[in-house]
Amino acid sequence: MSSLVLIPARMASTRLPGKPLADIAGKPMIVHVACRAADSGLGRVVVATDAEAVAEAVRAHGFEAVMTRGDHESGSDRIFEALKRLDPEARVETVVNLQGDLPTVEPATIRAALAPLDDPAVDIATLGVEICREDEKTNPNVVKIVASPVSETRLRALYFTRATAPWGEGPLYHHVGLYAYRRAALERFVSLGPSPLEKRERLEQLRALEAGMRIDAEIVRSVPLGVDTPEDLERARQMLS
Predict the structure, then answer these.
(1) How large is the average pLDDT for residues 71-77?
(2) CA-CA distance, 223 to 214, in Å (whole number)?
(3) Which residues are CB-contacts of 111 (< 8 A; sequence separation ≥ 6)?
(4) Residue 215: pLDDT above 60?
(5) Exposure pattern of 51-70 as b/e (b: 16+ CB <10 Å)?
(6) Residues 202, 160: contact at Cβ < 8 Å?
(7) DSSP3 helix / strand / coil % (the chain, rounded to 5)
(8) Torsions phi, psi of 96, nearest 5?
(9) pLDDT for residue 76
(10) Is-contact 172 153, C-beta < 8 A?
(11) Which of 21, 24, 124, 162 is packed most tightly, with the most Cβ within 10 A?
């Protein structure tokens, strides 16, 4: 399948303003993410941003950037605008949405997100990691996948929640918010308004499930570090120094 990796990046982070350009080991964070995406071997990598400074930094390091509107409510809306600008003839079949605040993500993890689309019944693919720490099982900031196993390495998502679920004996899975969309699925997704459960749980992916779309999750070994706070940024600097 023809694939495009899009990395949405905006400067207006509440907890860490200007984080795409935060320096980590001599490079802006967004450039580290682009490097990881390129190393995944999935194809063309483009940063989608509403800030000229981000676009300039990305291009200065040899990567491609596309300007998008500044009023998007979500990264999904931003990457769909970018997709239409970059591929007006609709040649791209699958789109990977890689968050711009994952500077330590492994290229193999990015590749894994595409694997569930081998099944033509799957509309959207994502990732899950088994939760090992007890405190994470009850932490509302750790989003859980309620899912039915498809194979030893794959789950069919039935629900996503901030609650501790499902109940009973067995593993719990942490959702990693890295997505691969079929083009038609992304177009349908962004055309839908926010759904009731999406608004209640504050989880965008529930919009797809409420609309009857199928999401499968590939199980990977570790959760990539998401940089949301100054403390996270220091951890990333230590890991990549």
Answers:
(1) 80
(2) 22
(3) 40, 41, 42
(4) yes
(5) beebbebbeeeebebbebee
(6) no
(7) 35, 25, 40
(8) -95, 125
(9) 87
(10) no
(11) 124
List alpha helices for the chain, DSSP H: 29-39, 52-60, 75-86, 107-112, 134-137, 183-191, 196-201, 206-210, 230-240
CA atoms of 197 and 163, how far apart (whole Å):
13
Residue 2: pLDDT band (50, 70, 90) is: confident
Q: Name the band, by pLDDT with cuts 50, 70 and 90, for residue 1.
A: low
pLDDT digit string, tens, across residues 99-157: 999 999 999 999 999 999 999 999 999 999 999 999 999 999 999 999 999 999 999 99
Domains of the chain (ranges, CATH numbers): 1-102 (3.90.550.10), 106-223 (3.90.550.10)
Q: H or E element: which one contains 221?
A: none
Helices then strands, each counted (H, E), the chain? 9, 11
Packing angle of the helix pair 52-60, 29-39 (nearest 10 deg): 50
Residues of 92-110 as b/e, b for ≥16 C-beta within 10 angstroms?
bebbbbbbbbbbbbbeebb
List pLDDT tens digits, range 163-212.
999 999 999 999 999 999 999 999 999 999 899 999 999 999 999 999 99
